[in-house]
Each structure stands twice: as structure tokens, then as C-alpha cells.
Amino acid sequence: MKRLFEVCAGNLESAIEAVRGGATRIELCSALSLDGLTPSLGMLKTVREIAPHLIIHVLIRPREGNFVYQEKEVEVMERDITAAIPYADGIVCGALLPNGDIDLSTMKRLIQASSGLPVTFHRAFDVCREPLTALEQIIELGCHRLLTSGQQSTAFEGIPLLRRLQEQSAGRLIIMPGSGVNENNARQIIQQTGVTEIHGSATDATGLTCHEKVRRICDAITF
Asked: Which residues, including other chains, have CB under 8 Å from residue 200's CB and lie 6 or more apart?
């Protein structure tokens, strides 16, 4: 069974390191210290030029903080998606209502703006109110995958819910564990949940993605 490690790259150097380490797909963002924000169009274009065969999923998140967006913020997200489409292979986004439910109206708009590119619902899911109900809504929306730590601080701690989400999804979308994934736990997370994709930044002490760490995680999930 083929398994995939998606590298979360928060800047140009990290994206280059991910490719050096053997990554075939990245989530491109900025400001990892803020849990990731929309990257600049210039960075996206540059990564595409440097690595024309790399699969690039672009995070669309206009600001730090919660995932409850006002109308003008949604318009910004739509415009960012439209600008990214010529250079991206997928869109990563998420939106919630003030009560912690999925914001279906906003998500429909963002998915429509994505013009058929695969959409990943990001870790806004990890603060949603009813995860199993939310999973069904995300599937019904037509999202292709769900990035989640299982509503815990790390994916390793979230294994019980991740396993339940994987069972409930039953192949209708991809469950992709993320947060705290490294070469020491990636295989165990996959084995105990049954997922085929996993997500992490593979950063070193400088906060940049390290190609050697990427390689080790890729090796760890090849079994």
C-alpha cells in the first residue's frame, strides 16, 4: 500500500528542503508560528517554477485566531483562491460558525471558488463541536480530505478519534493526521489508525523544514 507524507512548508526554504527530502506533495503556507496563514502569490509562483512536478496544496487562511469569518474575510479568501488556482494543485481551508459547527455556507463558497481543485478541510475541525457530525458534513460538501489531530494537541494523542474517523469515513474522503508527526511516531500513527496519508513540518531547531527529517519520515512510512 502506498503511503504519503505531506510536508507543511511555511516558507520558500522549507519548500525547497521538502523537495530535497523526497516529498511529492506540500501544503504551502506562511507564518507557521501562527499555525499557518495564506502564502504570498510570489512565493507560490516561485515554488511552482522551482519544482514544476511537485503537488502544491495552498493554505487559505487570512489571519490568525479563530475560524469564524466575516463577509469581507470570506471575500478575501475567495480572491486568494482565485489567484492561486493557476499554480496550485489543491486548496486547504476551513470555516466554523460561532457555536463550533461547520460553516456550511462559507465552505460552499470556498469550494466553488476552488473551481474543481481538491479541497482539504484543515484543523479548524479540531475545535469543532461535534466531530462525527462534522465529518459527515465535510464529506457531503465534497471535500477530498480532512487534516486533523483527532482534536488533541498531537496526532499521536488523537489516535482513538483518528481511528474512529477513518472507520466512519469508509473511503469517502482521506483522513490525514497532522500535528507532532515525526520519524518516531509516523509509522505507529498509520498502523493504529489505518490511514494512508500523514502531515507534518519536519522542522529542525531553526524552525525550518529539514530534508533529512523529511527523508526519515518518508522511510518510516514505507512498509
From this structure: 5, 6, 7, 8, 178, 179, 180, 181, 182, 186, 217
Amino acid identity, residue 93? C
Please identify which residue in the block is written with the cell numbers 507524507.
5
- Which strand ranges, in their side-by-side order, compose the sheet holding 119-121? 174-177, 145-148, 119-121, 90-93, 55-59, 25-28, 4-9, 197-200
Q: Which residue in 90, 89, 57, 95 sits closest to 76, CA to CA?
A: 95
Report pLDDT digits (tens) over 138-158.
999 999 999 999 999 999 999
Q: Give 8's strand partners.
A: 27
CA torsion sign, 176 to 115 to 29 to 14?
Answer: positive
| Tens-place pLDDT, residues 64-100 | 999 999 999 999 999 999 999 999 999 999 999 999 9
